[in-house]
Structures are given as structure tokens and as C-alpha cells.
Specification:
Layout (H helix, E strand, L loop, with lengths): L22 H11 L4 H10 L24 H11 L19 H6 L7 E4 L6 E2 L2 H14 L5 E5 L6 H13 L5 E3 L6 H11 L9 H5 L2 E5 L3 H4 L3 H9 L7 E5 L5 H4 E2 L5 H6 L1 E2 L3 E3 L6 H14 L5 H7 E2 L1 H10 L2 H8 L3 H13 L3 E5 L1 H4 L4 H14 L9 E4 L7 H5 L6 E2 L3 E2 L2 H11 L11 H9 L5 E5 L3 H4 L3 H9 L3 E6 L15 E6 L10 E4 L4 E5 L13 H12 L1 H7 L4 H11 L15 E3 L7 E2 L2 E2 L8 E2 L21 E7 L3 E2 L2 E2 L13 E4 L1 H6 L7 E5 L4 E8 L6 E5 L22 E8 L1
Parallel strand pairs: 3-4, 3-15, 5-6, 5-11, 6-9, 10-23, 11-12, 15-16, 16-17, 24-30, 27-29
Antiparallel strand pairs: 1-2, 1-17, 7-8, 13-14, 18-19, 19-20, 21-22, 24-31, 25-26, 27-30, 28-29, 28-31
Helix pairs in contact: 1-3, 2-3, 5-25, 6-25, 7-19, 13-15, 13-16, 13-17, 13-19, 22-24, 25-26
Length: 750
């Protein structure tokens, strides 16, 4: 392939002296960290399915490009799979661990044995599996099923674990079961199902390679899904006219500006300029921006009228809203200029094939569903769904999360999105041999609210770290102390496990296997709907750690031996066989048994039939609806924000979910205590780089240091979870339960 000097980010080899990741140094560090288990680590990389983001691999290869698929997210997670067991005596005094952050707690090692801590005890003691399960079974038999709740994280969990956990919860009589998608892409699921009849990406990564224009909304893929930069490199250097890339975001993300792709020689040496167009908006201003783009398209004849007439309903109302919206209102609410909205519309009109990609910057709002609906409306406006090189992609950041809702690990649907009503219960009873409950279930945030109110007797968390992932951490700790029995089933220690039990309370720690240790292997579902088999990897095992699904099967047989015999599973293959019957979209999962085995739900693209767009709605048409323009109902419009106050959002640094790897983000160069602020705002407050400030919201305070950044004025960003104390608890999107990870703050110099 010929070189592309016009795309080079720097003439200096490997970007020496620039703020950027040191990929090769990080690789050497990962090699050193795993030196005690090199053969095992290599087998995991060579044969396993990546437990990092949800791009999806089989070993070191994927289904999008030729060449190796390997990134630092996977290499950093590798040590979680190869580390030794912790010394149980380290947990004998919880107070002695109080000063350790999450990184230091993980470094203690893997959980090797079941452990228990009762109220008044200083720490945990080792117990047997028999004692742990006997206590759990006795407690469960004695309580109202409506006082039980189960939460599953996305930490490398397999589809098999999700399926068995939700089935066990329902066999015990409760719909209080939820998963980590509630904290990230729940708005995407709700909006896509309502508009298109599907609940996942409508396209595949190969469509990126064929697109003319790829637009990222509120997404920082170089940080969260770094191998996508390789896809973008190939899209931009495609023979003929390469793809253009645009970003709609409050902050001009450095990693999206330019990136050094370590496995592409040209990019590794000279870097690659990725973003062609940046459109700065206010935090939460995406909806008004998108309506403004639609207004410009309507005025300039940029709509695909034939597509709209043949394949949509409701678009007349969307059109009417856009045409009647005043430009001054759109500019105020979006934070973008009319010129920028018209510029985006002009680019969109010129493109024949477009992919829209979004992530937490769109979804983690109290209006997340509306944000996603606005993106869907814009895609429908020009018929960018249901054909090659086009589509909508809510890109997933965690390898286990896509399958959770699809396999029923949510409170309002059984596997296959079967509603938890009387009809749905009868359908599942015919398969399961017992009648599942139809009572409304609790979402993740509701579970913590119920715990604080004292109406939960048992909260079982498979992974998860509520203290560091939910707003108002102090209140979350209080809530956890109100639960008589907490269960934490995980591979390492987290801060949430160390939250004190309340009076007469008990905390149980149950050691779990990783996906690579799961007997019989397991599967994950990727962002592009690919169900991929990850085999069991030979190698050392940790103490008495057990696969999560095995523990649920054993528990049910102890609570009710007769029901356990009917509803249990002998092995992982039996689980996959039942999944295929419970969730029709997963038909074929029962055939997956070896490395490389995979199927893709719906094929390469959804919303397409016989080469034409077709939507999985009752009438085969996509449903378009207008979206509110104002920031949120409580705050009113932008004019109501007082002078001296700012909209702050939370961002990720060098971390995976709440697991922080480094104190400084190599993409931005900022420390964990930084507040990213525009030069204009800093000057107005007479602040400079490094100034210490206090951010004060209605919920709490945070001490931070100013970092001058290319961010839209009147907007700030702080790291998550450090900034969670600023967030107001109880603010959810009412349609999906997504917490609002944004707040209004006052900035006070110190």
C-alpha cells in the first residue's frame, strides 16, 4: 500500500515528545507483569475471545480486517486472568484496607475461597462452599421473593452466566434482575426497539470500511475501543476516495484528532490524522444540534423523500418540528453555531454511505432515549439504514454486555425480549417447567433505592462495583448497609465488597472463575451481534473458584431440590441448547463448541430484506418521533443556567469501567484530579493551568486542578468515578432507568 503523507500526524517518528500512549512500552510492561504465567497468558491471547471491549475476536483475529487484532485494553486485563490468589488473611481487617484504592485492592490477587463477614466483625473469615450455599439457601427460603435482587456486571461475563442467573432469579420468584447495560446503553436499546424494532447495531464494522462518512457522537473510541482506530485507518486510506470522519462532542478529543496505530507501520511511525470535521456542542446539546441539521436539510432539499414515504411513519412531525424551530433557540440549546449545523448538513448531503456511532456521551443522560431517537431521526432522513456502508452503531465498551438483556437479565423481559406479562410467563413456563413471576422488577438504580429503604433482604452482585459506578457514593454505602445479606461473586476485591454490613447484616464473598476458566467454555455477543465461542483455556486454576452459572445451579437445587432438578444444567453445552430454544435470535448458539465458532444475529446488517430496507416493526416501517430541545425538564433551557455555573460531565481516562489503570491519561496528559476547562472560562475566572478549584454541586463537592482543554465554553469534564460525588442520585431516564452522569457545578478558586 502506498504511503499517505497527507494523513500523517507528525514527521517525528512514533510521535516522540508528544502526548500519546506508549504502546510498545505498555506491551513490554504487560509482558513483564505476566512473566510468572507466560504460557497461560499466551494461550489466553491465542485462543480466547477478548474480555475487554465488545469489538469481538477469536484469539488474535477478528472478522473485519486482515492482520492481528490486539490492543492495550486486552493486555491490561490479561493480568486479571493470570494473577495469583490473594492471601485470605489480608481481608481479616477491613479497616486496614480502607486506604487502598481499587487498583491496590485488585493487586492483592484473585479471590480463592468463599469468605464471610458478619456485623461487628473486623473483617472476613474463610468458610466452605457448603456453608456459604447452606446459609444462602436458608435465607432465601425464609424471605419474600420480592425482597431478593440480582445484579450482574459486564466484567467478562458469558451469555451462559446471564441466562442461568436470570432463570434462577425467576425460579426463586423474582423479576428483580438487571445488568450493567443499565448504566450505559439502556437508552439505545429502548430507542432502537421503539423506532426500528431491533435492539442492537444495524451494521457491522465492515460497513465502516465502505462508508463515505463516519460520525461519532459522544464517543471516544481510541480510549475505549482502540482497535477501531485501525478500522478508521483502513477506511480513510481506502483505494479511491477514503472515508471522512466527523466528531460531535463538547471536547475535541486528542485521540480522535490523531492516533498512532501500533500494528500499522505507517501509522506507528508517523501517526494518522483521523478527524476531518469537529462540531463542538454543549453537554446535552446533541438533540438541538441534530434538529438544526434536519432544519438545514429540509430547507436545502436534502431529505430522501422516497425513502421516507416508503419506509417510515411519523416523519412529518419530525420535519415540522425542525422547520418551525428558531435558529437562535437551536444555537442556544446546542452550543453550536448555525454555520456549523449547516456545515454538517452539507457534508451529510454529499455522502452516499454514512455510519453514525455513539456511546456514553449520548446515553448517560436523563434524556438518553431522546438523544438516541434524534440520531435515528437523522439517519432516517437520508435513508442511511438497511444498505451497505450505512447504519447505526451504539458501540459497546464491555465484552459481556450485549447479551445480558437479550437473554433476559433485565427486570422487564424474559429471554428473547419476551414481556414479563401473563402471556410471556406461559410461553416461558412451557420451556422451563415452572411459571416465572410477572410482578414488575427493579432496575439497577431501583435496587439501591430499595436497599436504602430497607425493603431488600438479599442483594446478589455478580461483579459490579456500585460504590464507584453510581452517583452519590456515600449514599450508596448507606444503602448497602441496610441489606441483611449481601453477596459479591467476583474474581478480585472491589471497594463495594468492603462496605460495612448493617446491624445483624452479613456479607458473603464468592470466588468466581474468569471466562477462560469456565468449564465447557462460553460465549459472548459483540457490538455487531456476533455470538462468539471462547473455549476453556488449559492452565492453572485459583483455589475453589467456581463458574458463576455453576453456583446458581447449585443454589437452586439447595433451595428446592425438585425444582433444581428440573431447571438446572449439567454443563455449558446444555445451557447453550436451551438458550437456542428460549431466544429465537440465538438459534445456532447450540452448535458453537470450538475456537473460531461464531454466528451473527441477523447477518451483516439488520433492517434489510431482499436488498431493501425493512424494519422489524408491525408494519415494517421505522417510527420517527420529535424530540424535546431543552436540556432537561428540571433545568429548563440554557438561559436558566446562572452565571458562574457550568455543566459538568464525567469522562474515562486510562481505565476499564471503574478499574483505573494509570494516574495520568496518556491521550490527554491529564491527571485523575483534573477538571477540563476552556481557556475562555479559565480567563473569566482568573484561573490558569494547574489552579486548584472546588467544584460544588447540589449533591457534593470535588477538589480539582484546572486543565486547559479544547472544550466548548460553559462545559467541564471530570474523571469517573472520581466525580461521582457531584452527581445527583435518583435522576434517571424514566423510560430506561439510565442514571444521569452530569451535573451543574459552581467553580470556586482555592
Amino acid at each position: 500500500m502506498a504511503p499517505h503523507p497527507k494523513l500523517w500526524a507528525s514527521w517525528v517518528p512514533n510521535g516522540l515528545g508528544q502526548i500519546k500512549p506508549n504502546h510498545y512500552g505498555d506491551m513490554l510492561r504487560a509482558l513483564w507483569e505476566n512473566r510468572d504465567e507466560w504460557p497461560f497468558a499466551w494461550r489466553i491471547l491465542r485462543d480466547g475471545v477478548c474480555d475487554g471491549c465488545a469489538l469481538g475476536t477469536s484469539g488474535l483475529y477478528d472478522w473485519t480486517m486482515d492482520g492481528v487484532h490486539l490492543c492495550m485494553v486486552r493486555l491490561q486485563l490479561l493480568r486479571m486472568n493470570t494473577m495469583a490468589a490473594l492471601d485470605p488473611d489480608r481481608l481479616a481487617d477491613v479497616e486496614a484496607l480502607a486506604g487502598l484504592d481499587g487498583r491496590a485492592l485488585r493487586a492483592l490477587g484473585r479471590l480463592p475461597h468463599p469468605m464471610r463477614r458478619r456485623a461487628g466483625e473486623r473483617g472476613f473469615i474463610r468458610i466452605s462452599w457448603d456453608d456459604a450455599l447452606a446459609e444462602l439457601a436458608d435465607r432465601i427460603r425464609a424471605v419474600d421473593p420480592q425482597r431478593l435482587a440480582f445484579y450482574l456486571t459486564s466484567r467478562g461475563l458469558t451469555n451462559e452466566t446471564y441466562y442461568v442467573a436470570q432463570k434462577t432469579a425467576r425460579a426463586l420468584g423474582t423479576n428483580h434482575v438487571d445488568n450493567a447495560a443499565r448504566l450505559c446503553h439502556a437508552p439505545s436499546t429502548v430507542a432502537l426497539r421503539a423506532a426500528l424494532g431491533v435492539a442492537a447495531s444495524t451494521c457491522s464494522y465492515k460497513d465502516w470500511l465502505e462508508a463515505d462518512w463516519i460520525v461519532f457522537f459522544g464517543s471516544d473510541v481510541p480510549n475505549n475501543q482502540p482497535v477501531t482506530t485501525k478500522y478508521l485507518y483502513y477506511a480513510k486510506t481506502r483505494t479511491g476516495t477514503g472515508a471522512r470522519i466527523a466528531v460531535v462532542n463538547p471536547l475535541r478529543e486528542p485521540g480522535l484528532e490523531r492516533y498512532w496505530v501500533p500494528s500499522v507501520l505507517e501509522s506507528a511511525v508517523f501517526g494518522t490524522r483521523l478527524t476531518d470535521d469537529w462540531f463542538p456542542v454543549h453537554t446535552g446539546g446533541d438533540r438541538a444540534f441534530l434538529v438544526g441539521v434536519l432544519k438545514a436539510l429540509c430547507a436545502d432539499g436534502g431529505l430522501d423523500e422516497r425513502f421516507l414515504a416508503e419506509h417510515t411513519r411519523g416523519f412529518d412531525a419530525v420535519r415540522a418540528q425542525a422547520e418551525s424551530a428558531a435558529w437562535d433557540v437551536l444555537e442556544r440549546e446546542s452550543g453550536a453555531s448555525q454555520d456549523d449545523m449547516r456545515r454538517f448538513a452539507a457534508r451529510y448531503r454529499q455522502a452516499k454511505r454514512v455510519v453514525f456511532v455513539w456511546s456514553m456521551g449520548i446515553t448517560q443522560h436523563a434524556e438518553g432515549v431522546d438523544n438516541v431517537r434524534a440520531i435515528i431521526n437523522l439517519a432516517l432522513a437520508r435513508g442511511m439504514i438497511g444498505r451497505s456502508g450505512c447504519g447505526l452503531m451504539p458501540i459497546r465498551g464491555h465484552s459481556g454486555v450485549q447479551g445480558g438483556a437479550e437473554l433476559g437479565c433485565v427486570p422487564n423481559s424474559y429471554p428473547g425480549y419476551v414481556a414479563t406479562d401473563a402471556d410471556g410467563a406461559r410461553r416461558m413456563e412451557s420451556l422451563w417447567g415452572f411459571a416465572p413471576p410477572t410482578d414488575p422488577g427493579l432496575m439497577a438504580g431501583d435496587m439501591v433505592d430499595a436497599a436504602h429503604a430497607g425493603v431488600l433482604d438479599l442483594l446478589w452482585c455478580v461483579g459490579g462495583n456500585f460504590v464507584e459506578t453510581l452517583p452519590d457514593p456515600a449514599w450508596v454505602r448507606e444503602a448497602l448497609a441496610h441489606v441483611p445479606l449481601r453477596v459479591h461473586q467476583d474474581i478480585v476485591v472491589s471497594p463495594t465488597m468492603l462496605a460495612d454490613p448493617g446491624p445483624d447484616g452479613t456479607v458473603l464473598l464468592l470466588p468466581a472463575t474468569t471466562r477462560y476458566e469456565q468449564p465447557g467454555g462460553g460465549t459472548e455477543t459483540t457490538t455487531e451481534r456476533r455470538i462468539v465461542f471462547s473455549p476453556e483455556i488449559p492452565g492453572r486454576r485459583i483455589g475453589e473458584a467456581r463458574a458463576e452459572w455453576q453456583v446458581f445451579v447449585d443454589l437452586l437445587s439447595r433451595v428446592d431440590p425438585e425444582l433444581g432438578a428440573r431447571a438446572g444444567f449439567e454443563d455449558a453445552a446444555a445451557i447453550r441448547a436451551e438458550i437456542a430454544r428460549a431466544a429465537p435470535d440465538y438459534a445456532g448458539i447450540e452448535t458453537l463448541a470450538r475456537k473460531g465458532d461464531q454466528i451473527q444475529i441477523g447477518g451483516r446488517r439488520l433492517c434489510e430484506r431482499d436488498g431493501r430496507p425493512h424494519f422489524e416493526t408491525p408494519d415494517g416501517r421505522a417510527q420517527a418521533v420529535p424530540v424535546p430541545l431543552a436540556l432537561d425538564p428540571d433545568a429548563g433551557d440554557r438561559e436558566s443556567i446562572p452565571d458562574g455555573w457550568f455543566r459538568v460531565s464525567t469522562r474515562r481516562g486510562k481505565q476499564f469501567n471503574s478499574m483505573v489503570w494509570e494516574d495520568r491519561d496518556p491521550l490527554t496528559g491529564v491527571a485523575r484530579d483534573a477538571v477540563l476547562m476552556s481557556a475562555e472560562d479559565a480567563a473569566a475566572l482568573t484561573l490558569s493551568a494547574g489552579s486548584r478549584v472546588e467544584l460544588r454541586s447540589s449533591a457534593g463537592v470535588m477538589t480539582a486542578r484546572v486543565h486547559i482543554a479544547p472544550i466548548r465554553p460553559r462545559n467541564l469534564q471530570v474523571h469517573w468515578p472520581e466525580g461521582n460525588g457531584l452527581l445527583t442520585r435518583g435522576r434517571y431516564d424514566p423510560r430506561c432507568g439510565e442514571p444521569d452522569y452530569n451535573a451543574y457545578v459552581q467553580v470556586l478558586p482555592l
